[in-house]
Design brief:
Elements: H1 2-24, H2 26-48, H3 54-59, H4 70-85, H5 89-100, H6 107-123, H7 127-139, H8 144-157, H9 161-175, H10 180-196, H11 200-213, H12 218-230, H13 234-247, H14 252-266, H15 269-279, H16 286-300, H17 302-315, H18 319-330, H19 335-354, E1 358-360, E2 366-367, E3 383-385
Antiparallel strand pairs: 1-2, 1-3
The structure holds zinc ion.
Length: 392
């Protein structure tokens, strides 16, 4: 009996508290209920509204949507994001903008609303306004990394590389992160812009800046090598390409042809032979094998070249290798078989053409040419050559 009594005590206490609270707060509960009903009615109106034309956009007063208590503010934020995702950016801007203006909003929620408003403006293509909101966040020390990333994205999309460099240095200093690779690419972008305008002095200075920031920057070395080839400075070009090979061997398919070309132009056949011997079994990439095969043919004749090629494509099977080998068999086929081999070559051609030669390691975006910045996700240095049976 005693035990039962002690067990009932907390239940009785809770019942008493609820009863007391009910009578004491009856009025405020009624208010809350009316408020919630009105809030949900407005919310329903907002959600079922299909389009905002100019008239009803003005008629919707987001500030009247219930109280801006914590939960309601979070609902507004989520709603705004929903509108943006479904393409109704105008309404997202109104919703997030009205939240920022609420005096009673906490600093955290105001910063959250500002971040979303900045994204809304970016989605609407209003980059100046978006930048303004991100700058405001940085001034308030809120969402710092996200604001820097988004601002860099705005400058990258506008190809405003000078501002991107300035901001990336600021970001690096403030967040103690390493943006060397990215800043080097920005300098390479400026170098390419200058090259299109034939301003070679500026090209050189921007490429030097890129290498100063990231001494292994393959893109800067490749551009320097191209400039050296243009002025027939083959020795210099080879040195730049050797830097690329040393620090970014995955880019060998990109540089193998001009590198062999520069070695040939030097006219030093011993050096060329030493280079071929050094790389002949070193790389898996098919285009490296194919170019090396052609070089062996020039140096030692077709028999040695075919022997090397056959060995390599058996060791490192690939669709491209099979296609080229089959194409090589065409000239040796008897007239009755030639048609069948040609059909097989055509089939392999279409299979190879369907396969992306490059894939982004970050988002899986496939491409036929090398991109320093992924067109899919905007990451730098993530698009790589596909190595293996279906790729290089
Ligand atoms: Zn990507």
């Amino acid at each position: 009996m005693n035990e039962f009594f002690w067990m009932l005590l907390p239940v009785a206490a809770a019942g008493g508290w609820i009863a007391g609270r009910h009578s004491f707060n009856k009025r405020s509960t009624d208010n809350l209920w009316n408020h919630a009903t009105s809030y949900h009615r407005d919310l329903h109106q907002l959600l079922t509204e299909r389009q905002t034309d100019e008239n009803n956009a003005d008629a919707l007063d987001f500030g009247q949507l219930g109280s801006v208590e914590h939960d309601a503010a979070e609902t507004h934020l989520a709603l705004g994001n929903l509108f943006r995702r479904r393409g109704d950016v105008e309404r997202a801007i109104q919703l997030h903008g009205s939240l920022i203006d609420k005096a009673e909003l906490s600093d955290d929620l105001r910063a959250e609303a500002r971040l979303e408003l900045a994204r809304d403006y970016a989605s609407a293509g209003l980059m100046d306004r978006s930048e303004e909101q991100f700058r405001e966040l940085l001034d308030n020390d809120a969402h710092v990394a996200e604001s820097y990333e988004n601002l860099l994205l705005i400058f990258e999309r506008a190809s405003d590389w000078n501002r991107a460099i300035e901001l990336a240095h600021e970001y690096q200093a403030r967040c103690e992160c390493d943006l060397a690779e990215r800043i080097s690419h920005y300098n390479c972008e400026l170098a390419e812009q200058a090259r299109r305008k034939n301003d070679y002095q500026l090209v050189e200075s921007k490429l030097s800046a890129a290498l100063e920031i990231d001494s292994h920057c393959a893109r800067a070395n490749m551009l320097f090598a191209e400039l050296a080839l243009e002025r027939s400075d083959f020795q210099q070009a080879i040195e730049y390409y050797e830097e690329v090979e040393k620090h970014s061997p995955e880019l060998m398919p990109e540089i193998i042809s001009p590198l062999f070309g520069a070695l040939e132009q030097l006219g030093d056949s011993e050096r060329l032979r030493r280079y071929v011997d050094r790389i002949r079994s070193r790389y898996n990439a098919y285009s490296v094998i194919k170019t090396t095969r052609d070089m062996i043919e020039n140096l030692d004749g077709p028999e040695h070249a075919d022997l090397f090629f056959k060995e390599q494509i058996v060791k490192r099977p690939s669709l491209k290798g099979l296609r080229d080998w089959a194409r090589g068999q065409l000239k040796h086929s008897r007239s009755g078989e030639r048609g069948k081999v040609a059909v097989m070559c055509d089939m392999l051609d279409s299979v190879v053409e369907d396969k992306p030669a490059y894939v982004c390691e970050s988002c899986g975006f496939g491409a036929q040419t090398l991109h320093w910045r992924c067109p899919g996700c905007g990451s730098w240095n993530t698009v790589a050559t596909v190595i293996g049976a279906e790729g290089e």
